[in-house]
Amino acid sequence: MTVSERIYLSPPHMSGEELKRIQQAFADNWVAPAGPNLAAFEAQLCDYVGAQHAVAVSSGTAAIHLALLVTDVQPDDEIFVSTLTFAGSVNPIIYMGAKPVFIDSEPQSWNMDPNLLEDALKARAQSGNLPKAVMPVHLYGQSADMDAIMAVCERYEVMVIEDAAEALGTLYRDRHPGTFGKMSAFSFNGNKIITTSGGGMLISDDRALIEHARKLASQSREPVAHYEHLEIGYNYRMSNILAAIGCGQMTVLEDRVRRKREIYAYYAQRLGDIPGLTFVDEMPYGRHTHWLTVMLVDPAQFGADREQIRLTLEDHNIESRPLWKPMHCQPVFQDYEFIGGNVADSLFDQGLCLPSGTALTDAELDRIISIIQAMR
Description:
- The protein has 13 helices and 12 strands.
- The protein has 376 residues and is α/β, with parallel strands linked by helices.
- Strands 1-7-6-5-4-2-3-11 form an 8-stranded mixed β-sheet, with helices on both faces.
């Protein structure tokens, strides 16, 4: 088998509209990190999710960092954050000199457990040491239980910053995740449901916060003729060319959501009845995009563990991956507090992300499925 035939986990999928917009940007000489596509992409994203203001940036991680900067997070502030996530959710907390406190998952949605969060906030309130913010992460295209999370955070007057990097197209009670907190971050990395190859977006209904973030993301240049700086800035702005790709991708976002859900259903129908293989469907409160289709493997029932399945697929030039290794288990974060039990640990031990790219054909899905079925 040649490298070109390899099946990747979630490769980018172009609509055909992107190249037209890139060619137009070149024709108009808008190549520098400024231009009309930036404003258009920001407006399209706001219109889609129902936000008031947005700034397009270089990554979802940059968006989270800017959110922490403009909401005045200080060194040694605590940020409660989901433990089952990618390191990009947590690294910006460390950039700020703040302290992450990791909250375990609840077993239904795999997202931050609202009951653990409530207990932790109650204990912090009693000691007079509430966190600066709570950062739920909407995992693999499934929204966290935002009614419960917002209710407890409002009770204790703690700000919410959402990491919606994996949840564009997701719904929570007909509302888009990312529109509940003070600020929220999206990602358009190459493996996301839509991509600009790299990139992110910070959204908020607070214009002042977004404008401050826009300034910081542009090296904090003051609005004068010469280069004047009153704050430390960052080179975080998205380019006009990448924003052109984003505008093209937005035209097919709902098609991407539909296909992701079809892929999940195809896997679940063909593999879900096999003892030891479990597919967790969407929560009753909203639409799961199934950005990645994730399967839990009980080795005692199936006869092989998730790592054996992964390696077998790899032998056939098919990429799959374990779930995110929980942040409290990462050596770099081992000195920070963890609140919870072993839910996230168990999900990591048993979870396998299957190829979920929207360009996958049914024949390719059949091939993946037949390899797993043959391992019984």
